[in-house]
Amino acid sequence: MRRRVSVFGATGSVGRNTIAVLEEQGGVEAFEVVALTGAGNIALLAEQARRLSARLAVTADPERLEPLRDALAGSDVEAAAGPEALLAAAAEPADWAMSAIVGAAGLGVSLRAAEHGGVLALANKESLVCAGELLRATCARHGTTLVPVDSEHSAIFQALRGEDAAAAERVILTASGGPFRDWPRERMAMVTPAQARAHPNWDMGERISIDSATMFNKAMEMIEARALFDLSPDQVEVIIHPQSIIHSMVGFNDGSIMAQLGPSDMRGAIGFALNWPDRRDLSLERLDFARLSRLDFAAADPVRFPALRLAREVMEADGLSGAVFNAAKEAALDAFLIGAIGFLDMAILVEHVLDKLAPEAAQSGPDYDLDAVLELDATARRMSGLWVAAYSGGR
Ligand code: NDP
Question: How far is ligand 1, taken at its centre, from the CA of residue 96, in Å?
């Protein structure tokens, strides 16, 4: 029997790699593709859907339904559009679903796809940052296994296999440090979006690449790790490791450290999630340690990268502060991309919104639903917009 699979965010960086892995591991012979989704890239979505004989292709953008229908003309692929159609696609039963939409827009899809049992391969870290408890509770209720795809969390997941989780003292997330790892803050103040987009090691989508340059991505991953592996904030550490060869580590109560290493290629974590609990051949580069010759490490600096300090505050505050953090971060990035605020202003904006909404985020407590998350997300975005308007007006 073919495995039923769906890929949400199929046209993105993780999505394209997922399609490549599905094709490498048998394509239509091995997989019945239930749904593929995208947003603006209709040509690619239609091409992927045709190649993999998907049952359903969905664009998030309702305006693009007609172009999608045209691009699929003559095929058996059904076209649909809009956020409701995305949720309906996520409600279609599948044995394995990849959640790789970028941003909080992926949250509803993750929650819906978590209702099928089987495996939810999670790249969309926003789902865990904004609503970790809700997502894990949904998975538990429906017998769904959450397998992380973020390379750091995949590494931790792999290092914990067969171990007693209670024996894990700490997790150590590795961070490349991004393109401005050694830059002084004065120089970072002048950074442009084009400079921030250029990640030294990983080839990723634009937003996560810029989040890596501010280290907001690592900050998200700290919160994500805490939510995923039930850790206390002080069990989550970050170390700069410029080569990105060690993807992360777990330290145990006997002093042992388990690390997962591999090339900087998302197909590794995607393939692991696809084949879990087994391993299968993947055509990834094999590490050659003689050529590597060295692995470097340095302390992460929360002064030059305030996102790391803010992540600690979010983990301590708990409640729904992750949703506020993410929404403000997304709004800050939007403002940076259009030149309304500078590179360093992004963290200032996020801190401002976190402070202002701390009471609301705390009141939400552990028993919240998706509506509460989305409401606070909208409030945080509104507040961010006001801050940007006041900032731009004052310049
Ligand atoms: P991309 O920007 O490359 O792709 C995003 C995908 O989401 C595309 O398919 C895009 O469609 C779709 N999309 C965009 N906006 C919406 C929306 N409003 N509603 C529904 N779909 C939408 O992102 P990445 O692949 O880089 O990242 C995806 C997720 O995975 C993020 O959460 C990221 O943090 C995480 N991640 C990414 C890694 C990477 O290597 N890139 C590594 C680890 C985690 P279209 O392109 O057609 O517009």
Answer: 18
| Share above pLDDT 70 across residues of the chain, in percent, rounded to a whole number | 99
pTM of the model: 0.96
Q: Which of the listed residues 101, 207, 212 should we mutate to test ligand 1's pocket, taking the one with most ligand atoms within 8 A of CB? A: 101
Q: 3-148 — its CATH code?
A: 3.40.50.720
- Ligand 1 pocket, CB under 6 A: 9-15, 38-41, 60, 86, 100-102, 105, 123-126, 150, 202, 204-205, 207-208, 266
CA–CA separation, 288 and 292 (whole Å): 6
Query: How many other C-beta atoms are found inside a 10 Å radius of the C-beta of residue 291?
Result: 6
Distances (CA, A) of 166 to 43, 139, 174, 187: 48, 21, 22, 43
Q: For a ligand 1 pocket test, name from 102, 120, 244, 333 the mutation site with the most ligand atoms within 8 angstroms of its C-beta.
A: 102
Question: pLDDT per residue over 285-341, tens digit each?
Answer: 999 999 998 999 999 999 999 999 999 999 999 999 999 999 999 999 999 999 999
pLDDT band for position 392 (cuts 50, 70, 90): confident
CA of 14 to the centre of ligand 1 (A): 7
User: From ligand 1's centre to the CA of 38, what distance in Å?
Assistant: 9
Q: List the chain domain ranges.
A: 3-148, 152-263+291-302, 318-395
> Tokens 């690592």 appear where?
218
Question: By the 8 A CB rule, do 338 and 194 touch?
Answer: no
Q: Are 198 and 179 in contact (CB under 8 A)?
A: yes
Report CA dihedral (24, 150, 329, 185) to the nearest 10 degrees: -110
Distance 99 CA to ligand 1 centre (A): 9
CA 278 – ligand 1 centroid, Å: 26
Domain 318-395 part of CATH 1.10.1740.10? yes
List all residues 6 or more positions away from 330 whose beta carbon is below 8 Å from its beta carbon: 103, 104, 207, 381
Beta bridge partners of 237: 172
Query: Smallest Cα–Cα separation from 46: which of 19, 21, 25?
Result: 19
DSSP character for 245?
A: -
What's the gap between Cα 38 and its chain centre? 16
CA 116 to chain centre: 21
